[in-house]
Structures are given as structure tokens and as C-alpha cells.
Amino acid sequence: MAYVNAYQPPPPAKPAYGLHGPVPYDINVAFPLDFAQLETPRLKLVPFIPSIHAAKYHAAIPDPVHFYRYYPFPGMEDPESYLLFMDAFVRQNPYSVLFAIIDKTTPDPDYPEWGGKLAGTIALLNYSPTNLSVEIGVLCVLPTFQRTHVATHAVGTLIKYCFTMPSASQSESGLGLRRAHWYAHPDNEPSLRLAARMGLEREGTLRWAWVLPTGKAFGKTPRKTDLLAGPGRDTAIMAMSWEDWENGAREIIMTQMARIE
């Protein structure tokens, strides 16, 4: 039987705009976002807009190699590569969105209109309207705000939004999801402890889930005859279901957020 294989790899996609994205900036999100629900008395989540937030964000990271040491993606340490990656990985995916975390307890005299100081990022990734699930990721708390209320409030606010049922008449409304999950490097103990403290349960480990960039630390050595040179990485899976949320996890999160007041 005769056949052909005419596949040709597509050329690399080049966005028709600069590093700061399209103008006006299009967050390109295909699921409901109610920013009134993404705010506490101490913190709020807003769209990460590169032209507004990127310079402050990168300037607050004195050691990018250490800051991104557990991330599997290449080039995040370089501000330009970071912005290109986040545009391709997050903004161009209508089921993902990157938030800037604004700490309302710390004013920023340079940007009083922000209502606080930029404290980091967090994202919803690969939202599935078919399976009612989403990943919580890209949690990057800037060094000045680590070991404060920021991580607890950012994660708690987003999880609450994920599991609260949609409502047009009640003060609390959300996405009404069945599942939210969290991926972490198995050696990233602070990330795993935070997820556990917020009520997520360890579901297992995806072994050899990533091929890391060559030279990346915290990787596993591949076989000598491997097709790629980069080390490997396992991924720990933490998750919460709607059953967890309704059977105690909501109270866990509210308690954690109250303790960090």
C-alpha cells in the first residue's frame, strides 16, 4: 500500500507585536473573571500587563537563576525571554490567565493607582469547561513578600473563586469547578508545604515528566544513550476536588487566611 508523509514543521510563530503584547492589551480569556471576587482586604489579583508590571517585577528579582530554580521552562531568567514565553504559554491560550498579585498593605509611591505594591504572580492554566478543572500555577512571590500573608491570600482567593458556584444574585460567585490541581518540583518543599497547608492533597508523582534545559539544576540524569541532553524532572501533583472543598477544605482556607491577617 503506497502512502506519503508530507509533514513539514511549522515555522516558529512570531507575534505581530512587541514584548509588551498587543495594544490595547488583550488578556484573551474564554472563561468568566470577576475581579471583585479576586480581592481580600489585604490583597487583590489583577491581569498581569507587561507594559505596566514587567519592569517592576523583574527589578524585584535580584537572583533570577535561584528564583526560577524549580521551573522547567528555558529562558525565564531573562526578562525578554520571560515575556515572550508568558505571551505564548499563557496569553495566547484563551483558557489561561496570568495575574499580578497586588499587596494592598504596602503602598507603592511610584504607582499609587495600583492600590498597593506588586508582590508576584499567580495563574489559572488550562481551564477545562468540559471537565470543570484548572491548574493553579506560576506562583512566583517576589523575595520581599515571601514568608508574609501574600502567598496564603493569593492561593486562598484563587481556590475560593475556583470552587464557589456561579451566582448572579449572591455576594460570592465563582467558576463552580470540580477540580483544581497544582504541579510542583518534588524538591520544592515550600511549594508542597503551602499546597498542603491550603488543603490540597498529594495525589502522586509524574515520573520523568519534563526534559529540562541543559545545565538546569535539580534534574535527574538520563540514560547515556538518551535522545536529548537535558536532565529530567519528576512532577508532584497536589489537588483539591469539589468534595474536598465542601467537606472541610473551605474552612481550612478561611482559617489560614484569617491567621495571616
Strand order of the largest sheet: 1-2-3-4-5-7-6
Helix content: 25-40%
Q: Which percent range describes the beta-strand content?
A: 15-25%
Low-confidence stretches: none
- The protein's oligomeric status is single chain
Number of strands: 7
The N- and C-terminal alpha carbons lie at a distance of 71 Å
Structural class: alpha+beta
Report the sheet with the most strands, covering strand number, pairing sense and barrel closure.
Answer: 7 strands, mixed
Mean residue pLDDT: 95
Provide the succession of SSEs: EHHHEEEHEHEEH
Give the CA-based shape.
globular
What value does the Rg take, in angstroms?
19 Å
Query: How many alpha or pi helices?
Result: 6
What does this structure look like?
- By secondary structure, the protein is of the alpha+beta class.
- It has six helices and seven strands; from the N terminus they run βαααβββαβαββα.
- It has a seven-stranded mixed β-sheet with strand order 1-2-3-4-5-7-6, sandwiched between helices.
- The radius of gyration is 19 Å and the shape is globular.
- It starts with 42 loop residues before the first strand and ends with a helix.
